Amino acid sequence: MSKFRLIKSTAPIVGSFVIVMLVLGTSVWVLESNRRDKRRAAVADMTNQVSGDIRDYLYHSLSTTYTLAAVIRQSNGKIPNFKQLGRDILAVYRSISSLQIAPNGIISDIVPLNGNEKAIGHNVLEDTRRNKEALLALHTRALTLAGPFELVQGGKGAVGRLPIFLRDHSGSEYFWGFSAVLMKAEDFLREARIQRLSEKGCSYELYRIHPDTGEKDVFSSTGGTLKNPVSQVIQVPNGQWILSVEPAGGWFSLHLILVEALAVLLLSTFAALAVWWLVRQPIVLQKMVDDRTIELTEANERLQSEITERVIAEEALKASENKLRSIFSSLTDILLILDENGCILEVAPTSSELSSSVKEMSGKMLAEVLPPEKAELFLSTIRNCLSSGGLVSVDYPLPFEGREVWHAANVSPLSPTTVVWSATDITHRKKSEEERLKLEMQILHAQKLESLGVLAGGIAHDFNNILTAIIANAELAQKRLPSDSPANECLQRTQKAAARAADLCRQMLAYSGKGRFVIEDVDINSIVEEMMNILEVSITKKTKLRCKLHQPLPQVTVDATQIRQVIMNLVINASEAIGEEGGFIAIRTGTMNCSEASHKNQVPGEQLPEGECVFIEVSDTGCGMSEEVVAKLFDPFFTTKFTGRGLGMAAVLGIVRSHKGAILVDSEMGKGSTFRVILPQSGHSGKESRLNESPLHWKGEGTILLVEDEVTVRSVATEMLVELGFHVVVAEDGEQALKLYSPDEISIVLLDLTMPNMDGEECLRELRKLNPTQKVIMTSGYDGQEVMQQIVDEELTTFIQKPYNLSDLRRALQRHLA
Length: 818
Prior knowledge:
Layout: H1 2-74, H2 82-92, E1 98-103, E2 109-111, H3 132-140, E3 144-150, E4 156-167, E5 173-184, H4 185-191, H5 196-199, E6 202-209, E7 216-222, E8 230-236, E9 239-247, H6 254-330, E10 334-339, E11 344-347, H7 355-359, H8 366-369, H9 372-388, E12 392-400, E13 403-415, E14 418-425, H10 427-480, H11 487-512, E15 519-522, H12 524-538, E16 543-548, E17 556-559, H13 560-578, E18 583-593, E19 612-620, H14 627-632, H15 648-658, E20 662-668, E21 672-680, E22 703-707, H16 711-723, E23 727-731, H17 734-740, E24 746-752, H18 760-770, E25 775-780, H19 785-789, E26 797-801, H20 806-817
Parallel strand pairs: 16-18, 22-23, 22-24, 24-25, 25-26
Antiparallel strand pairs: 1-2, 1-5, 3-4, 4-5, 6-7, 6-9, 8-9, 10-11, 10-14, 12-13, 13-14, 15-17, 18-19, 19-21, 20-21
């Protein structure tokens, strides 16, 4: 079935191809035949014309024989001027090669003779090879043409001979001879312009049928063998010449025929394709309809799918929008869209407390809603963001409802001319950072004070060792000199200077928190009242001192002497701040709850005691202090006085800190300063810890083990102990002391607290192991209170502070040995 359909569908195509090819082929054949006939007619006309010209030139050339015959007849068989006549004839008839006369058939004269000498004397009647035409002429008494044939002088030629008959005296005719004309074929045909045929693109043959052989004798031709020429017969005397002409490429143009055949093939193919297209149109149309139907069906399905997807996308978009709205509503950030000129294009709905205020800014310029400097900050940030093409962060404060709100903004480009401004409220973070920085400053200050305290304590310890040697040696020297010795006054000045130096060391130890305390429960009001007289004489005359003491005031556990030093330093500093212009100094006492107190003016690094406290407040109407001065006020060696040592306020801080208290400072330039010393209340009653003075004549006995690493202190202490009546065993450190110690011989041990190798505290523990009842006096340039608090057997161990003199040493030994 499919094969039948294939044949059915291809038959019209093949048929149309064959029919069109036959029609077009026939048309081409007819066209080519007509073209050939026209060409053949044209060639025939040209052949007739050329053959006519050949015949005319031939007869014109042969007519010269009649001319010669006429001259011979007139001259009665003689031609006296034959040569001249021949030259004249040759000048006119250029197709003639030579003229001859042959009386009785023998050639006697030729014009021109040059080149024809061999023909003179030739008897044409007796030449059996060539006498046929001569005999014919003699027999017929008519002009005959011999040839063409090979000439003796070379080439082919034809000879026309005319027999001449004369009459004798009797009137009878006799044969005189021949007048002949020789024509070379090449020259003759050139004059007849036979080359015109070649010039017209034709091949030709000029031939005759040889009378003897009957074969074709071609004596002029061009081109190859002629297949279907046009021939024209040329009648010549006693014969015929035939001129055959044919186009050089044949009657048909092969190139043109190929082009036409190709055109026929193409046209036939186009016709077949057209038929094929027409035959297939219903099928194609049906297929197009089917394909279009499928496309429409698929498009409809895609459209339905797209509609479904669009509905889903719209629902997802709506859900996403609701989600974003929920997210924006939960955000505390402020989201803005601004253009490069500072116009607020859009405000996102967030839950920020500023959101309602910011929403009102939509559509406005930044310069309309912000202060000029803030608007310029926003614009510069927007320009930086758009120029860099990346994220830009900036922190800035804005006023809101009477307070300053800090924001951290991230600005990113949304388009070449717009940005997204996301701002977060960082006010709490800023406050936390400020508090952290303040705490770090306090810690740093505390660390600095602690390190300086360690330095001051170390210096004071070394000074106390030196001062011990100075004071003790001066006292021993004065004791050993006569009372009227001039050196006594110098020694007294030395002791006073050393005492002032010892006081300076006590201040340094007080600053470092390692001062020697005599702790007791005291009433601060009583201390202030006792000091009023000395305070009034310590300030300038134009300064008035006022007191406002809270009654009753709880007791505090303090060293009364050091509290007096604190009050004295604060009052003297207040007087110096007032200067000579005069003013007021107020001393006030009272109680306060530190847990409720403000820490605004607290000295960095200090912790306020918790619970109920007692305070001493000294305020003045002086020049006040700047923040820079307040920050350095308690630094050791910092002073605003030309002659000050810079240890007064540092010692105050050290004393207060050693009593677990704190200091609040409030000062303003031009308005004065207020210092409040806060001390914790006492929980029990104190008792006086001072010793009664011992008699100057007291002497001891027995052996004392002196353990001291400083050479000068060890030397002077040995002399003082000998002065007091003791035998002294000396050790440089704890290890040597343990080697020298004998429980049966040693009555008491004078032990330095700070030593290399083995310190006094460790040495004391080892001595207790050797003799639990051994009496020991501890001594140090530092305060030994912390060490003494750890000692259980206070009756066996006591402490003496360096620098000590002979009286201090006597008092300690007397009390300990009592």
